[in-house]
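Sanity check record (used in CI):
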Amino acid sequence: MKYPSFDHIIESLNAGKLFSFPGGVHPDDKKSLSNTESIATAPMPDILVLPLRQHVGSEGQCCVSVGDYVFKGQPISTTTSPYSVPVHAPTSGEIIAIAPHVVAHPSGLTEMCVSIKPDGKDTWGELTPLMDYQQRDKSQVIEAICQAGVAGMGGAGFPTHIKTANSKPVEFLVINGVECEPYITSDDRLMREHAWQIRQGLDILNHLVSPKAIIIAVEDNKPQAIEALNIACQDKQEYRVVPVETKYPAGGEKQLIQVLTGREVPRNGLPADVGVIMFNVGTCYAIADAILHGKPLIERIVTVTGDAVEHARNFRVLLGTPVSHLLDAAKYQPKKQKSPRVIMGGPMMGFALADATIPVVKTTNCLLVPSKKELVADNAERPCIRCSACADACPASLLPQQMFWHAKAKEYDKAEEYDLFDCIECGACAYVCPSEIPLVHYYRQAKSEIRLQRDERNKAEKAKQRFEARNERLAREKREREEKHRKAKEARLAATNNKTTTTASSGSESAKGGGAKDKVAAALARAKAKKAAQQAQASADEASLSQSTETD
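Expected output for Electron transport complex subunit RsxC:
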């Protein structure tokens, strides 16, 4: 597929013209509930519960023990793989537990967590900022971002250092401040109040990835945020603050790239494949904190909103803070709900929490507490009427109806044939569904089951490979033993043959030597016999002579 060239895209941006993406919806944004007041600092909870994995990737290795005292900002886990980032203590205090705890997940899963009892002193550990980052090797700056625990704060929490270490040439560095989901205003307030620090984070990213162009994208329903960013970037003409149309889900990574550049990220591809790298404004803020101040990621801005809270607003929250603690800070009113219901995230992509003790993590941007009139009840699903409204709304040009049927029937192979994994789970299909079917719920279940089956197949394949490798090793060792025994046998036979030959030779030589000795002995015996005969003859002659003399 031929994509718009870099020069064509720049011309379009300069002319104020943008591209678009298919589908999309225009829900009531409900942002005025929480964006009219400045960010407040949430009170310190009695206990902080910190999952060791708050990002996409592997869990870190816990490096503290129960009873240890930790300082604010001190690592409580270490990285175990390139896709791992550490977790840090949000305040000073004592480690009181290291055990599984329910975490933010649609299924209410438990993961290993570290619990800290704050001592109230909020004592920082040693901080090591890199104020001279421009004079440092880029790898050193990237490593500092990793060790600060920075992960994407606008999506799934992809480790930031992996993106910044991208080896592909970057044409566009995009900072995502769209925040298109209804109710959520944490990025809006962050841009209004901390535009300069976002700009500082952008400077660091610019230094690391060296893009040809830089775009800060903000939905056009946030005029105050746009103005604040324009002021912060006024001395940098290459930093473009671009308002984009308010349409959900314009803030999705693939959709925003399509809006700004007209380029589509290929199936199973990455933004880098089309020359784009993207970061959330909250991630920029965290990068500036990490490099310029040496502070690890230990807090974030969270929107607490909905008609069931009296004081909806944005809070600066320590990671590990229980959801119930934030609800108390926003004056939760349970009487306005038919049954207790808290959604982490927005109404489109969020999920209901199974437990109010679930902690805030790096990817928690909103807690929605709706009244019984605000959102559709979970049991309102009716049969599909095949109207195709879901397909019209899908920003990924999929067929949600077909995927739903196959996912519900557990025909996962057929669901994959309809590109199930290209679904971004934006919820636009469920929003327009007249039967109020929770389509995304079915897609998530199907994806989880497919991943589980893949894991099982991979485990079985690895087990098979290990079994075959073991059999091959045993067969090889057997062959080696047999070969060793054969060679030893041949050596023994050779030695035996050599010994026999040597013995025979020795016997022959001995026989030859014995015959010579016998001849010598015989000769000596003959000589002795001859001598004895001669002596006897001489004696006889003397006797005869003597007798003759006497006669005369």
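Residues 381-488 form one domain. If this sentence no longer matches the regenerated tokens, the check is flagged for review.
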